[in-house]
Structure formats: C-alpha cells, structure tokens
Amino acid sequence: MGEKISVRSFFYHRNNLYCERVKVNEIAKKIGTPLYLYSKNSICNQYKSFKEAFSPLSPLICYSLKANSNLSLLKILKNLGAGADIVSLGELFLALKAGIKPEKIVFAGVGKKEEEIQEAIRKNVYLFNVESSSELRLINKIAVQFKKKVNCNLRINPDIDPGTHQYVATGKKESKFGIAWDKAIEIFKNNALPQIKILGFHVHLGSQILFPEVYESAIKKVLETVKKEKIKLAVFDLGGGFPIEYEKSVPPIKNFARAIIPLLKELKIKIIFEPGRYIIGNSSILVTKILYLKRDFVIVDAGLNDLLRPSLYGAYHRIVPLRKSLEKTFVGNVVGPICESGDFLGKKRRLPVSLKEGDFLAIKGSGAYGFSMSSNYNTRLKLPEILVSKNRYKIIRKREKYEDIIK
Ligand code: LLP
C-alpha cells in the first residue's frame, strides 16, 4: 500500500518551509510563481483516515471531483480505491481517464442536460443522484432508447441548516437542491417508470460542516420517514461536507464517524460518501511572490482568478512566509494584481517586518476549490500544479500559455 504516516506534508525545517522532503523555495524559483503545490503524502493520509474512520460501514468513497480534478491527483485516489462523485461530462471524462471504474461513479447535479445523461448511461455510471421528477422522466426516456435499466437515488432536501456559508449550504428548503420530503416519498413509492430503479436517497447538506450533529439529525430525519413509510432502501448516499482546518481547529473525522456509524450500521445497506475538501483541501499550498510593498498592502502575484475563495466567501486561508522569521511582525493586507478592490487573499495578517519584495508566501489550505474555481479573468494564465512525493516533484499541469487562450 504505501506511504508511511511519519512523512510530514508541510512543515518548517531550519526556518524554511518544506513540502515533504523538498524545499518549497527551490520549486518556486525553478518553476516561477504563482503555483499550486500538492503533497502526495497528505492526499494519501487524508483518504486513508477517512476510509479508516468509516470502515465499519465499508462505504463506497466517491471523491468529489469538483474540489479538484487534476488527473494525476485522481490517479492517486483511484489507486487508493476511490470512486468519483461527478457533476459534468468533463468530470466523467477525467474520472474514467484516471481509471476509476464506472460502477464507482455517481452523477449529481441539479441541471443535467440530455446529452450528459446519454453519455453517462452509455458509460454505465453506477447511479444518478436525481433532483426532480422531470429529471427522472428524462433519464427514463433515454434509458428506454438505450434499452438499459438505470439506477437512481433521489436527492432529498431535508430542510436542515448546516450552519455554513450561505453559498455552500445546500440542504435548506430555500436552496435549489433536492426534492422536498413528501414529494420524494411519493416518487419512491409510486415509481412506475419502467427503466428506472430507485435504490435509495441522497443527501448533501453543505460544505465545511463543523458539527457532527448536522449529519446525525439529517440521517435521523431520513430514517424516521423510511421506517414510517415502510420504504426499503438499498443505498444511502450521505454526500460530502466534512470540514478541514483553515483558521480554527475542527472536529476530527472520527467524531463524525462516531455520530454517523451507529445510525447506519444496522441497516446493512450500501453507504456512499462524497468527500472533496477533506481529501484535498489541506494537501496543497498556493505559492506566490511579493511584488510590491505599499502602505499596509502586500501586493502578490496571485489574485482572485487563481484563488477565489477569500473574495467570494470571505474565506480565511492562512498565509505564511516560505522563510520563517522570528522577528517583529506587522499587520498587512495580502492582495493580488487584479483590477478589483475585492481582490484579496488575506486581510489584516501578521507577517514578519523583514519581508521584502521578491520574497515568497504560501497560502495554505488551497487544494480544494482552488485551482478548480480558477479562471482567466484579466486574461491571466492558469497556474501550474506541482506534485511532491518524498524528495521528488513533478509538474502535473503546465502553466497555461498565451496560445492556449486563443484556441
Ligand atoms: N457532493 C455534492 C453533491 C456536492 O455538491 C459537493 C460540493 C460535494 C459532494 C463535496 O463537498 P465537500 O466534501 O468538498 O464539502 N466552492 C465552495 C464549496 C462548494 C461545494 C459544492 N458542492 C468552497 O470553496 O468552499
């Protein structure tokens, strides 16, 4: 299997930031900045700790590609046994290309198009997480053409507040996601669509959920109804949403497992999880160079087009110098070069006074929804991605070129 837990992913040694056994500074100088840097060790540890925590359920772990769909990273996860939670044909293409078997792929999304459903059926994905009765009818129509029986889960909107940022809360009544309770029960019980096999329910409550109780109450809500309505589930997909530490510490995955496992173990059905952030979030840093120091601004070469989370959600990412200094600190705003005042990576951050123009900073926790949400805004090139494994590193995505953006 592999990697020893003792290899450290990101740490300081003699005041220099290392990723595993490679000095980050050397990569920054060699490749140029900005760049995304991943630790293979961290990805493996995160996946294994998730698997281990939930092992009593022997779940299918469908890594959520939207968090980060770099092909080399997907191959690592595939080799660890991961399936895939996909939301587009692009993600289907990548999951298959990484070697993930179709029977480990689940297809979500509130707006699946006809050609997407066709292609997913053609490729034999394991199931569709269905968001409406119209979608179910469309899947049936296409399944008839293919002469195939198609597995579906109904995504329920359990009307639960996960206590996260409103943009990533998906299980509340006001959100566009899922099918209302009573409607889902009705569809489940009365399904007469000949090519549709409804296996069970899907809930995804939101992202960066800080309290295990949120899962607990959603599961209880589902199971109470299942019991009352005498529904026979074959599959229960709990989605993703497991948190990582950005600023403050979060409960370990074991606490989530402790809350969830007892509720599901007795059912003896197939359990699916769709973690994204938990696997990849803290497995990466964004390395950026200080261009200018001006008033209390630290102007760096990465901007909101490279990492949107701070600007979009007010998300906090730790920012640390590649060379640690124990000297005095100052409070500065780390901002990018984009022509918008909302282009910041960190506000009011404590940084060493010794920082100079030309020095490098690392933006931590940037692996999930970092590169995957990046854009060409201001006609800037998408960043390279580098993977470190022990004392070696390789480029797993080249920096975009100007020719690429006029193709
Ligand atoms: N399953 C479904 C159906 C989802 O919609 C999502 C994420 C996941 C699984 C994975 O969730 P995770 O384990 O990563 O929390 N851009 C936002 C996060 C959006 C999440 C969208 N759905 C951010 O940067 O925080």
Characterise this structure:
This protein has helices spanning 24-31, 40-53, 71-79, 89-97, 114-122, 133-146, 181-190, 212-228, 253-265, 277-280, 309-313, and strands at 10-13, 16-19, 22-23, 35-39, 60-64, 83-86, 105-107, 127-130, 150-157, 179-180, 196-202, 235-237, 270-273, 284-294, 297-300, 319-321, 329-335, 344-352, 360-364, 385-389, 392-397. By secondary structure, the chain is α/β, with parallel strands linked by helices. The strands form three sheets. Strands 4, 14, 15, 16, 17, 18, 19, 20 and 21 form a nine-stranded mixed sheet that branches. Strands 5-6-7-8-9-11-12-13 form an eight-stranded parallel beta barrel. Helix 8 (212-228) packs parallel to helix 9 (253-265). 28% of the residues lie in helices and 26% in strands. Ligand LLP binds at residues 64, 66-67, 85, 108, 168, 204, 207, 239-242, 274-278, 309, 368-369, 373.
